[in-house]
Specification:
Blueprint (H helix, E strand, L loop, with lengths): L2 H24 L10 H22 L5 H15 L2 H13 L3 H27 L2
Helix pairs in contact: 1-2, 1-3, 2-3, 2-5, 4-5
Length: about 120
């Protein structure tokens, strides 16, 4: 395994995590249900970005090493399935079952749609 690629993925992951942390402090929860909008937005935008990178890689506009750095490193650090899962459980445990299920299902559906749209967009180049 290429040591410089490992370092680049680790550094990009750190950058992605910092961006996620900054956005989580900027984007407030939504409504009286206090839906954690930041994680929702981060995971959906991360899926769109990953789709774009994938599409660009398919048409060979992003070299494999950069796909690894951006997809695995940057977006791996940026998106957060574990936080989304924990927030869903927290909503359900607080008696807000419907909000929790809509949050989880909505994020998943929008993330998949975003990834598909991003991939299609990336392939246009």
């Amino acid at each position: 395994m290429n040591a410089s690629l490992v370092v680049a993925v680790a550094a990009a992951g750190g950058v992605g995590a910092v961006i996620r942390w900054l956005l989580s402090g900027i984007i407030p929860p939504i409504g009286t249900a206090r839906v954690p909008a930041s994680t929702f937005c981060i995971n959906v935008t991360g899926s769109v970005a990953l789709g774009i990178i994938t599409g660009l890689a398919v048409v060979q506009l992003v070299p494999p090493e950069w796909r690894t750095i951006l997809a695995t490193g940057l977006l791996g650090g940026y998106t957060t399935f574990s936080t989304a899962s924990n927030e869903t459980v927290t909503l359900i445990d607080a008696g807000r079952r419907t909000v929790g299920f809509v949050y989880a299902f909505g994020m998943f559906v929008l993330a998949v749609i975003g990834a598909g749209l991003g991939t299609a967009l990336g392939r246009l180049f």
